[in-house]
Specification:
Order of helices and strands: HHHH
Structural class: mainly alpha
Number of helices: 4
Shape: elongated
Radius of gyration: 19 Å
Length: 131
Amino acid sequence: MAEQPTDFRRGRPAPSDNNFELFAWFFMRISGVVLLILALGHLTIMHLINSIEDIDYWFVAERWSTPFWRIYDALMLILALLHGLNGLRIIIDDYLRPGGARTLALSILYLVGLIFMIGGLIVLLTFQPQL
């Protein structure tokens, strides 16, 4: 007779044998909550308080003229990218056996993540609004 599955309602258990995996496990939970707050704030400001007709280059240029909004958007970018990359890393670890394919997949994942992180931060930090 087949063994009964464990109760999956509790989620992925916290790793206890590897400090990096434990950090990644906590990061996913904390970053998820922070991202939810940041995304709801972004949604409120960009789509509920302001009309969609108001959002254009000038709106973004005025918004990014203050450091607060650049930091807000940079934090959302960094957390979303790292949260997503960590999730994909876990999926790759779950489905690919150690070896060449897993190493290649993780290398591509990290490279693409780094490219998007650098590109996004360059835009956020070097944008000079022409008001």
